[in-house]
Amino acid sequence: MSRSPVERASRLLATGFGAGFLWPAPGTWGSLLGVALFIPFLAPLPWGWQLAAGVTLTLLGTIAAEVAASGLGGDDPSAVVVDEWAAMWLSMVALPGPMGWVWAFFLFRIFDIIKPFPARHFEALHGGVGIMADDVVAALYTQVSVRLMFAAAAYTQSGFLLALTGQGV
Q1: Which ranges of 3-46 would DSSP assign to H, the alpha helix?
Q2: Which candidate, 146, 147, 148, 168, places its Cα nearest to that of 158?
Q3: Is the peptide bond prior to 26 cis by the omega test (within 30 degrees of 0)?
Q4: What residues have CB less than 8 Å from 112, skipping those under 6 apart?
Q5: What DSSP string describes 37-73?
Q6: How many domains, the chain?
Q7: Before 96, cis peptide (omega within 30)?
Q8: Which distant-in-sequence residues (6+ apart) come within 8 Å of 150 by Cβ?
Q9: pLDDT per residue over 5-23, tens digit each?
Q10: What is the C-alpha separation between 13 and 19, in angstroms, rounded?
Q11: Whole-prediction pTM value?
Q12: d(CA 48, CA 64)
């Protein structure tokens, strides 16, 4: 059966240029693709452009996932990883360098797997929206968590330094 150019392009984007066919853990491979493309292409840009790229990929990915899912076997086939890719971009927006990106990767994978409220509810939506929405929620949890971790570390470090020098007493 011959696929149309739109179907072929959708499948290519939805599977992360084939990363979704890698085993084990295609979602992790899709997330790694997101990191690998974010660092050289988006990290040097201002945060507004990073966010715009993440939102654009999310919108395009929603359409691509909708088109490609039926040909890949079901409502949310494991080969569709554009959701992880886009969510990694959203998870990494405006984070401070390599440590922020490493934390974002690991926390996103945890949130994507455990699907805290309301992510699991969004996953129940049908089509491309359902495929993408739970990962967007995981990306939001990731952004908040990494920012809170860095804020706590900065507060703790400054408090420790003030106490060490006697200025905080």
Answers
A1: 5-14, 26-41
A2: 168
A3: no
A4: 27, 31, 84, 87, 134, 135, 138
A5: HHHHHTTTS-HHHHHHHHHHHHHHHHHHHHHHHHHHS
A6: 1
A7: no
A8: 96, 100
A9: 999 999 999 999 999 999 9
A10: 10
A11: 0.91
A12: 24
- Secondary structure (3-state) at 158: helix
What number of residues does the chain have? 169
d(CA 22, CA 16): 10
Chain CA centroid to CA 69, Å:
19
Give residue-wise pLDDT tens across range 22-52. Answer: 999 999 999 999 999 999 999 999 999 999 9
Q: What residue numbers bound the domain in which 93 lies?
A: 5-165
User: Contact at 8 Å (CB) between 96 and 144?
Assistant: no
DSSP for 96-130 reads -HHHHHHHHHHHHHHHHHH-TTTHHHHHTS-HHHH
Identity of the amino acid at 53: A
130 with 122: CB under 8 angstroms? yes
